[in-house]
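User: Could you go from structure to sequence for me? I need the amino acid at each position, not a summary. Structure tokens:
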């Protein structure tokens, strides 16, 4: 089951999975076919790559290299001694 979940995450990171697949219709509602092969022309929409998921995946796989880092500016105390916004 873990391997299936990882495959799903990796496919989402890469994008390119088919969301919608429908034949191309002319203005009369007839399916258009390729002139050379006679096969129906298809209109497809694909998923986009998910960069946020990819960054989260990398941060969990190798936190030392890809984990979130706090900048020195964020670590410095403010004038009243409280920590800055993180």
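Assistant: Here is the amino acid at each position, in order:
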């Amino acid at each position: 089951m873990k391997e299936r979940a990882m495959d799903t995450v990796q496919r989402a990171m890469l994008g390119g999975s088919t969301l919608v697949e429908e034949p191309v219709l002319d203005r009369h509602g007839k399916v258009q076919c390729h002139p050379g092969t006679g096969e129906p022309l298809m209109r497809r929409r694909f998923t986009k790559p998910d960069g946020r998921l990819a960054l989260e995946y990398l941060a969990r796989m190798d936190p030392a290299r890809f984990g979130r880092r706090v900048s020195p500016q964020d670590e410095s105390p403010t004038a009243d001694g409280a920590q800055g916004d993180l």
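One structural detail worth keeping in mind: The chain has one domain: 2-63.
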